[in-house]
Amino acid sequence: MIEKFCEYLVELIRKQTPEMDDDQAAIVLYGIEIIIGEIPKIFLMFITGFILGYWWQTLAAFFLILPYKACSGGFHLKTHIGCILCTNIIYCGNAILSSLIVLPDHIKWLLVVVTAILGILCVTKYAPADTENLPILTKKERRTKKTLSYLFLGINLIAAIFVPNTIISNILLFGTIIQTLSITKLAYKLTKNQSGYELYLREQVANHS
Q1: Nearest-CA neighbor of 96 among 66, 65, 51?
Q2: Nearest-angstrom CA–CA distance, 81 and 20
Q3: pTM for this one?
Q4: Any idea where the domains of the chain sit in the sequence?
Q5: At what angle do helices 105-126 and 139-162 cross, to 10 degrees?
Q6: Measured at the alpha carbon of residue 33, what is the angle toward residues 30 and 39, in degrees to the nearest 5?
Q7: What pLDDT does residue 151 have?
Q8: Residues 6 or more apart from 90 whose CB is under 8 A from it?
Q9: Which of 99, 105, 122, 184 has the greatest CB tally within 10 Å of its CB?
Q10: What pLDDT, on the 0 to 100 scale, is given for residue 2?
Q11: Interaxial angle between packed helices 105-126 and 166-181, expressed in degrees from 0 to 180 and rounded to the nearest 10
Q12: ω into residue 128 within 30 of 0, thus cis?
C-alpha cells in the first residue's frame, strides 16, 4: 500500500516535471518511500517503548543519535517489516540496556576512547555511507556530511562523559557505537546493501576504460 501511494506521488511529480527520466524518478521514489515509511516506523517504535515502560528513554535514544545518523548514513533494509523490526530492536534495545546497565567510570572511559578511535576510522573510510538507491555523489555534499559526522561523533562522546544522568550518558555512548557500526562494510554485507558512491565510481572507471 505504501509502495503504490509513493508511486502515485512520483507520477504526479513526473507530470509536473516532464524532463525527469526513469533513473531520476527511481531516486525520487526511493526518497519518498523512505520519508513516508519512516512515519509508521517511528510511531511504532515509540509505542513499543511506551508499552515496555521506556518511553522517554526511547525518545532520547532516537533524537540524541539522529544528527550523527543523518550525517554519517548507514544501511537500509529492503522491506518495511525489516525496517520496523530493526528500528525497534536498535532504539528500544538501546533504551532498555542504557536503563539497566551501570558502567564503572574506568569502563566508560575505555569504551569512549575505543569508540572515538573506531568512529574516526569508520567516518574517514565510509561516511557518508549511502545506498545504491539514494547515492550521495557530489563532493561538496560528501565533504560536508563527513565533517559533520566527525563533529557529532565528538559531541556525543564528550557528552557521554560529562552528562551526569547515567541513562542519557549510556544512550549517547551505546547509540554512537551502534551508529558507527552501521556504516561499516560488514554491516552493508550482512544487510545486502551497496554503496551508491562506490558503484558510481566503478561505473565511471568502466566508462573511461
Answers
A1: 51
A2: 30
A3: 0.84
A4: 55-208
A5: 180
A6: 150
A7: 98
A8: 178
A9: 122
A10: 60
A11: 30
A12: yes
